[in-house]
Amino acid sequence: MLFVLFSSEITMIETTRPFTPDWVSPPGDTIADLLEERDWTQVQLAERLGYTTKHISLLINGKAPIHEETALKLERVLGSTTAFWLNREAQYRAALARKEEANRLKGWISWLDMLPVKDLMNQGIIPKCRLIDKNKPGLVKKLLQFFGVASPEDWQNYYVGMEVAFRRTREEQSDIGAISAWLRLGEIEAEKLDCPKYSKPKFEKAVREIRTLTVLPPEEFEPQMQHLCRKSGVVLVLVPSITKAHVSGVARWLNPHKALIQLSLYGKTNDRFWFNFFHEAAHILLHDKENIFLDEWNSGESLESEPEREADEWARYFLIPPEYAEGLTQLKSKNDVADFAHRISIHPGIVVGRLQHDHLIDRSWMNGLKESFCLQGLE
Q1: Which of 250, 242, 313 is nearest to 276 (CA)?
Q2: Which residues in 312-325 are b (16+ Cβ under 10 Å) and which e?
């Protein structure tokens, strides 16, 4: 059958969607056409090829594959080339696999209800489209590729199975779909970055140097802190937050030699950013490699876990050492805060965050000393 299309019609087809027929033609159709042309029966072909009539029937109906030996025999008996018959078989099997895949994808569309599809569209991770039935199988395929898994069951086994390792700061961090998507975005970024094996002494030195960067603007401190972390075997990545994930940061080990600190810039003020970073750094320095520490800014609803208390305390006193902490009660004005921050070499916004957290001042006071920013990695 021959179809003739004008060039304008061809253009229209190419710019809409690829031609994906719901029928699949096995190479046996070609064999059957040739038999009809020659007025041969399947019995006669079986005798010429040296096969049983049952095997010929299976070949014609696409139930038996054309292997190299069969292709060679078909070339001798029916003509064309061995390559033609093998290509015809390969194309048929590929088309059959695509059809079966399409059916599987249709059966998996309920998985989309577990995932932050719209967030991932808005971030350009998957193509934007309407969430209608005809688009959903394609979205399932895109999301499987995004997560790097073969099926929703494999996603369930890997990411939901990973949940047992989560150490959360808030009980409502329970949307595994949103959390897994945010974690996967960090994994993808981390996979792009090479770094030496983790060294605890080097990372300890790095965090001391990073503390001196808190007084710099984001465009200056961001590349420096990422470089310092990476030199010590810790990858720092910045990933925009995802609705319902409620995660501001995570500390985890990608393998025994490579750690990851992932931040979402939750809160968008520098006091929260710096506390979150040093809190995650504390998990890397102090705690085991098996757990995944998911953290949100402490809003008074923290789960009472020892690792979280340790990380909080470490970050708290690393930013404002105990020998200076007593002086916090004497800070009554913005000038007092600025002088104090200058004396201990940190940004005054961090001091304000500490004063508010310790209830030494109201949360509405002195916020003008904080800075709101968007880091380059999150623009």
Answers
A1: 250
A2: bebbbebbbeeeee
What is the CATH superfamily name and number for domain 18-107? lambda repressor-like DNA-binding domains (1.10.260.40)
Structure-token pair, residue 249: 């940061």
d(CA 73, CA 77): 6
Which of 226, 216, 220 is closest to 190 using CA atoms? 226
Q: Are 145 and 119 in contact (CB under 8 A)?
A: no
Cα–Cα distance between 136 and 127 in angstroms, integer?
12
As a residue count, the chain comes to 379
Q: Could you tell me if 34 and 59 are in contact, meaning their C-beta atoms sit under 8 angstroms apart?
A: no
CA 75 to each of CA 29, 58, 170: distance values in angstroms, whole numbers, following the listed order: 16, 18, 69
The span from the CA of 105 to the CA of 99, in Å, is 10
- 96: confidence class by pLDDT, cuts 50, 70, 90: very high
Sole residue written with tokens 């991932």: 120
* Predicted confidence (pLDDT) per residue in 262-319, tens digit: 998 766 789 999 999 999 999 999 998 888 888 764 444 444 588 889 999 999 999 9
* DSSP string computed for 139-192: HHHHHHHHHT-SSHHHHIIIIIHHGGGEEESSTT---HHHHHHHHHHHHHHHHT
> Where are the extended beta strands (E) located within the chain?
166-168, 234-238, 249-255, 258-263, 292-295
- 204: nearest Cα among 231, 238, 236, 167: 231
DSSP class of residue 269? B
Domain ranges, ordered by start, for the chain:
18-107, 109-147, 163-319
